[in-house]
Specification:
Layout lengths: L8 E12 L3 E12 L3 E5 L6 H8 L7 E6 L2 E2 L4 H6 L1 E4 L11 H11 L6 H10 L15 H13 L5 E5 L7 H16 L3 E6 L2 H7 L2 E6 L2 E7 H8 L1 E8 L15 E4 L4 E7 L7 H10 L4 E8 L2 H11 L2
Parallel strand pairs: 3-8, 3-9, 6-7, 7-8
Antiparallel strand pairs: 1-2, 1-4, 4-5, 9-10, 11-13, 11-14, 12-13
Bound molecules: adenosine-5'-diphosphate and magnesium ion (MG).
Magnesium ion binds next to helix 1.
Length: 314
């Protein structure tokens, strides 16, 4: 069994760019290090460049600039060695319709130069509830079952790194649960997992680290726990009777922002702190003779952080 050592980098993406002909820039100078044994979620809206990025790492798409190393080896000059380390569950359903489940999964293992191992194939088919379908032709399977076959294929050669491209977009609840159990089990054996998603909840539930990508730019990479601390922040919005041009000096100690042309004063505070500072703020506002009509609070969610980041880079 592999040891989990998240300090060691397993993938290094350096200055990676991709321009689709004639001149559409899908990725702009991406720098990213994936750590051994982590679950990394690449989160971003449709068209952000997620599939392009993982297709390059998996050697399906050529980069325009920059380079990628997988366990220190270049994905282009050492393609066979790096590709053999990787399992990819693609976003689109692509399977050989006329083959049986057993044949296609066993064949895929062989493609990566691995010796046959029927016991291992049996194990993954059982894990994916595909065992009783092993002799069925792929074309007779439902969409959910076909997706399970894609996962089995991706795992057939015992990869150290698993990419899942939008694994749960449009899949049923049962498959989603099975998939997450499987992913966690793989992580325990030392497999590094990179998933793409446009669902914030998915990144939140599964990932150790989250990278946010928008319009081909990686705009944030952070430990999920750190992002969650940001989620622990709350905002108090005060609707002012008279607009302010700037934040008065007397209030400089507070984390304040003006919004709505100075009609709204927003105070951000940490819900995990001993004191929120609200009482002190309200008393200072009284001293400065700043009156408000209404007040409300809201908790910032990953959704807000995401939307704000995406807005900033647009
Ligand atoms: N083969 C291609 N030729 C031209 N443009 C492409 C091609 N593949 C993807 N794109 C464009 O690149 C952008 C990023 O696509 P993609 O990587 O699939 O995004 P995501 O997976 O985040 O939805 C999109 O605007 C898409 O239309
Ligand atoms: Mg995609």
């Amino acid at each position: 069994m592999l040891q989990k050592d998240t300090n060691q980098s397993v993938i290094q993406v350096e200055g990676l760019g991709k321009t689709y002909p004639p001149d559409f820039t899908a990725l702009k100078k991406i720098n990213l290090t994936i750590k051994h044994g982590e679950i990394f979620a690449l989160l971003g809206p449709n068209g952000a460049g997620k599939t392009t990025l993982i297709s390059i790492i998996c050697g399906i798409t050529n980069p325009t600039s920059g380079r990628v190393l997988v366990k220190g080896k270049n994905i282009i000059s050492d393609f066979r060695a790096t590709r053999a380390l990787i399992g990819l569950v693609p976003q689109e359903l692509t399977t050989d319709a006329f083959e049986t489940v057993w044949a296609t999964v066993s064949f895929t293992r062989g493609l990566f130069g691995k010796k046959p191992n029927p016991a291992f194939i049996e194990k993954i088919l059982k894990q994916l509830s595909l065992w009783d379908k092993k002799d069925n032709k792929i074309m007779t399977l439902s969409g959910g079952m076909k997706r399970r076959v894609l996962i089995a294929k991706a795992l057939s050669h015992e990869p150290e790194i698993l990419f899942l491209d939008e694994p749960t977009a449009g899949v049923d609840v049962e498959l989603r649960k099975d998939m997450w159990a499987l992913v966690r089990g793989l992580q325990e054996t030392g497999v590094t997992i990179i998933l793409t998603t446009h669902y914030i909840e998915e990144a939140e539930e599964m990932a150790d680290r989250i990278g946010i990508i928008n319009k081909g730019e990686l705009i944030l990479v952070e430990e999920k726990a750190t992002l969650m601390q940001k989620l622990g922040k709350k905002q108090l919005s005060l609707e002012l009777q008279k607009p302010l041009k700037q934040i008065p000096k007397a209030l400089a100690d507070f984390d304040l922002e003006l919004a709505d042309d100075g009609h709204c004063l927003i105070y951000t505070y940490d819900t995990t702190a001993k004191q929120t500072g609200i009482t002190a703020l309200l008393s200072k506002l009284g001293d400065a003779d700043i009156k408000f009509k209404d007040l409300s609070t809201n908790k910032s969610s990953l959704e807000d952080i995401f939307v704000n980041l995406v807005k900033e880079t647009t």
